[in-house]
Amino acid sequence: MTMSHTGGRRRPPTIHDVAREAGVSRGTVSRVLNGGHYVSPAAQEAVNAAIRKTGYVVNRHARSLITGRSDSVGFLLTEPQERFFEDPNFNVLLRGCTQALAAHDIPLLLMLAGTEDERRRITRYITAGHVDGVLLVSSHSGDPVAQELREAGVPLVACGKPIGLGSKVSYVAADDRDGARDMVRHLLSLGRRRIGVVTGPLDTPGGVERLAGYKEVLAEEGLPIDDDLVVSGDYSRASGEAGAERLLTQAPDIDAVFVASDLMAQGVLATLQRAGRRVPQDVAVGGFDDSPAAVAASPELTTIRQPWDRISAEMVRVLLAQIGGEDPAAVILPTELVKREST
Amino acid sequence: MTMSHTGGRRRPPTIHDVAREAGVSRGTVSRVLNGGHYVSPAAQEAVNAAIRKTGYVVNRHARSLITGRSDSVGFLLTEPQERFFEDPNFNVLLRGCTQALAAHDIPLLLMLAGTEDERRRITRYITAGHVDGVLLVSSHSGDPVAQELREAGVPLVACGKPIGLGSKVSYVAADDRDGARDMVRHLLSLGRRRIGVVTGPLDTPGGVERLAGYKEVLAEEGLPIDDDLVVSGDYSRASGEAGAERLLTQAPDIDAVFVASDLMAQGVLATLQRAGRRVPQDVAVGGFDDSPAAVAASPELTTIRQPWDRISAEMVRVLLAQIGGEDPAAVILPTELVKREST
DNA sequence: TTCTCTACTGTGAACGCTCACAGAAGCATG
DNA sequence: CATGCTTCTGTGAGCGTTCACAGTAGAGAA
Prior knowledge:
- The structure is a homodimer.
- Chain A has helices at about 15-20, 25-35, 40-55, 60-65, 80-85, 90-100, 115-130, 145-150, 175-190, 205-220, 235-250, 260-275, 290-295, 310-325, and strands at about 75, 110, 135, 155-160, 170-175, 195-200, 230, 255-260, 285, 305, 330-335, 335-340.
- By secondary structure, chain A is an alpha/beta fold.
- In chain A, strands 2-1-3-4-5-11 form a six-stranded parallel beta sheet, with helices on both faces.
- The interface between A and B is large, with 55 and 54 residues.
């Protein structure tokens, strides 16, 4: 392994150097670099050898300049970041996307658009073509950035179904409703009949769908849907605590709670324990997400696993397809019940 | 606000378009773009107006091609990612760096080098000049990537003092030793005398320094340093549980534990509670990091705050300085004791 | 033979920018 | 009037790549 550029920063080899070394022209080297069609086996081999010998790496700037592509994608957060960064799911998603993209040799640019100023700057950056597409993580409706990007024709894939955008935007989401149904059925199967629910924010599809699943199952079982059993939260731990308190006063006889996120469920557990209710003996608690928070809780949470690894993989797949010219697509992935100590 | 490129994807305006619109030459526009030296006020104004009117955004690829800079930096994780992604500190650091860079209009590329393969690919990518510098997050010693990057002359700033690399590499770190000293002194001030410690991994500077602080204070107070009081962990929650179990068998009379990370402290709390010890009445527990895990724990953790916002800001500052040609530098930032329920 | 088709190769001409340089204009100095 | 200096401006070249096009050579068909 002889490296020609030992120490210091030498001018890196260009496609010319490779061509000279291999005894072919730039064109041929370029063809090898881009799939190797219309290249003779001999030339192919010579070029590859020359690349190894010179330590050549393509200059992406030069390539991007002429192709118009940037061969990079943005990972865009348009909300106050605390929300996401304290959410363990977010981590998993970010990692999954980075890895899925790495497999295609595409770097991920992390973009935070918390303030109005940042939003403007980033919108400019993106619409200027500095990324080929955007993975959008934003749950709330009426996101102006998403709207603008869509109108500018930037390939876009959202995580979770975006509300308020036309149907022409791709998204990948877990089957929230079905997951909620599984959890509520699970609680029923344990003999629980007074099942409270702490919903997510109801201006997000996840919040709405999980509540809908809860109501559906109760209705199917012929159980009444008591308004006192329904309180809403915002996915944060604090709102879980507050929600549980409201539940305990409105419906002190509850024997189970379905909580629309693990983080909120942590809060629910804390409140229940403070109130002297044992989990799961007195009150069973079911979470949602199967985030690291689920095993960090005590007792460990029974929860609904969102297939984050598949979600990120699909987001990348759909985005790349769209960059490649395909039409937008929606992908819904199944969830899974994970039983632990809290039920 | 009239946008010339409404809908669809039109060819974006170039520096030529701006020059024509402003009635000047490319050179003048370029000068305005790069600080505006040697440009008359009249030309300055005309160019700015033309930029606004055309909606011009500089093509970074073209610029990078000639300048050799990429105007982007990498955020590199060289360890098995689970470790970091489950660590709430990591989030804060990543966000801080992204924002600090955004202020300079520099995008952050997230790079995960978990496997050997990825390591190779990413090293190539970086040494090919696709980023101007690297923010390195890797605690363990003997990291081959860091070594290679250093040798290739890539500007580099580590988070936490890297072991094993020459002293010529920049880093930014919290004052681990001093933080540990604060915590142990705090526990002593509460009247505790049998203070156990769960250390971090001892091949990391943080692990070593925090233990050193613990020992120093005990020595200063004339207290014996009992080997039974010292167990080591790896910063994970599970290792906190295991560590607490060992402590309870080796030294059942402990009345306090200093735990080198909040995540481990969560595990310690769980084990103590299972063993019937009340926190803080029977055993006081002090964590380290002041991560979100600290308030997620019950009781909420007394801990040592690492100034992550300042750490990220300093990392970016030092990296940019180094990219600008300055010499490497080390920055140590003070920590702060945060009192909560567990002591 | 001659023509066509396929597989392969080399060569300018971009892509949009910055940089070095040349030059102009204004003003003071010799 | 020449000379120098400073401030400002325009121009050509070139960064490293891909793309379109023009070839070449060999095989098969007419």
